[in-house]
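#lab-general

N.A. 3:47 PM
ok so I finally got the sequence cleaned up, no stray characters, all 417 residues accounted for. can someone with queue access submit it? mine expired

B.Y. 3:52 PM
send it over

N.A. 3:53 PM
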Amino acid sequence: MAALVKGVGCAVTRPLLSVVQRWGLDARRWVRALRRRPVKVLFPSGKMEERKPGPKKQAWKAAADASPGKLPPKQSLQMTQSQTPSTWEESGLRYDKASPGDKRLSSAVTIVKSRSFREKQGKILLEGRRLIADALKAGAVPKTFFFSRLEYIKELPFDKLKGVSLIKVKFEDLKNWSDVVKPQGIMGIFARPDHVKMKYPEVQLRHSLPLLLICDNLRDPGNLGTILRSAAGVGCSKVLLTKGCVDAWEPKVLRAGMGAHFQVPIINNLDWESVATYLPNDTRVYVADNCGLYAQSQMSCKDSDHSRGSARQRKYKQEEGLQTEASEDWLPELEVQSYDLDWTETPAAVVVGGETHGVSLESLQLAESTGGKRLLIPVVPGVESLNSAMAASILLFEGKRQLQARVEHFSRGRTYH
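B.Y. 4:20 PM
back already:
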């Protein structure tokens, strides 16, 4: 009988041991399968803790679920000391580690690199630590960060990363989707910024001038980025982009702008009827001119073959069948003025056209209705006219010089009296 009981006991014990061992093995496999969940915690001191739920932690979790009103003593004490974690030591930084074949990076970058998808999804792509830091400082809303090294995330302000998806990927994957020669190892997907909600730097607001820039059908990303950089350097109050311009949030424009997008308000994709609503009262609109060889004679650009805007108008008239001399009367009559003569006595807006088609007829009509003129930058005869970025920079900094000279003259007059 004892032998029989002993045999039964052995028969029962062996299957139980087998089940326990098998359960532990399955649990470990289940933990390894959770690749898209936070698997590591990074603290500011550089310490990194790897957390893998074991049988004890699972048993503790089950007990907590069974009695939610009772918490372990350590957790209860920790929550009392710090109800609102504000430092990395208190709450840590959680991130996902992308597994091989993870398509989250490719899907996100594909969407934001297409203008139609950018406008539909309301997202943009920023690459590089400096550009991302400028965007966060200006109040841009981040959605996702892809990075290759943890140090790049540690450089960003912790309070800006709450609720942001952080994904660590291999540098080779970032390099494959990067548009720069030497990628910096971090990309950010942001909500498309709204100029009304942005917080521009205080120093930029203090140096803002009654000077606006209107970009008319600019299609070269490098030129537009350079123009935006000049506008921010001058202190323009706004930059208006008409329909037909390249998207200001295209990656190439962002790189050429060097952070200017977060220093000056940019209003994108406007029709000419909307442009007038963004101009302050008493604003005069001036059109950048490139008559070149006809500077000394001050001839009207309407009769000059060197005006791209006029060439566009003549082409339009030919397509519409307007060949009579009387049809010339509908062209706006704008006086030509040298760029270095005073044109900032009232708030001014400068229109710069694209190099292919020049300024549009609508810009000339707006300048005529506001009492504006054509601004001529003379060049040596036989030399090709300046490109859009150079012309815009010259005009904007000349406008700034005139405004500063007026302020100094007014200050000297007050001191004298």
